[in-house]
Amino acid sequence: MSTQPSVVPTPVTAIPVAKANRPVRIGLALGGGAARGFAHIGVIKALESQGIQADIVVGTSAGSVVGAMYAAGNNGFALQKMALEMDEATISDWSLPLFAKSSGVLKGDALQAYVNRMVHQTPIEKLKKPFGAVATDLSSGQAVLFQRGNTGTAVRASSAVPAVFQPVRINDRQYVDGGLVAPVPVRFARDMGADLVIAVNISQQPEAQNGNSTIDILLQTVTIMGQSINQFELKQADVVIRPELPSMKGSDFAGRNLAILAGERAAMAVMPELKQKLKAMQER
């Protein structure tokens, strides 16, 4: 009877399989602050330089203007080019006579037309990134998130500072500036599905705003009203970027270059924290 030779298995060293990073949806919440909103462009440029792209964009007031154009597919450099070429007169169609029986000084038609031109007449739901614009329902005082329809109209509603811009009527409701109820729309970025929210706060302490013009005073009033809401909402963000613009007023469109640079610097300052949080979320 023959004996079969015994077979000794060769030990196989297990090859570690690299764990795939969990996809993390990044939300960018862009706050209001009129001309200080140019800082948002610098933030976007800095994020892109580090390979970080927002999956969801939500904006209030000035943040909705930049956010809409970013969501339409424009990168940071394209946004900067638009900003430098933008003539203030193209978004400031003054009502005539100046203080007629209208409820606002600026009609907002030109802002609406400008935004629609910059996004090539694309409605919100067809922009390249999911986008939302936050406005305030004038009747109920509730925050409303526009995610469908005419992009320029939604941005115009989000930016309608009371007594500066006339309220915007949409489907028999009137809307004004979203900064009254959501100065930096962090919770709406969450509602739209963001896992990690980057908030950009361009508001300023009221005592730093010493402008004497009517528009400066009205913008300061909106800032004061939104302060406590802002403090609460910013706590819900994963990372908060605060561009340093101590002397820039909301009406200072000439300071756009400095605002863009301030946005870049502020974003780069928090980049280590942002990358650490993003990495931790991806590895969960």
From TrEMBL:
Active site per the UniProt annotation: 61, 177
Organism taxonomic ancestry: Bacteria, Pseudomonadati, Pseudomonadota, Betaproteobacteria, Burkholderiales
UniProt keyword annotations, A-Z: Hydrolase, Lipid degradation, Lipid metabolism
Short motif DGA/G, span: 177-179
Start and end residues of each PNPLA domain: 28-190
Provenance organism: Undibacterium aquatile
Protein name (record): Patatin-like phospholipase family protein
Motif (GXSXG): 59-63
Keyword set includes Secreted: no
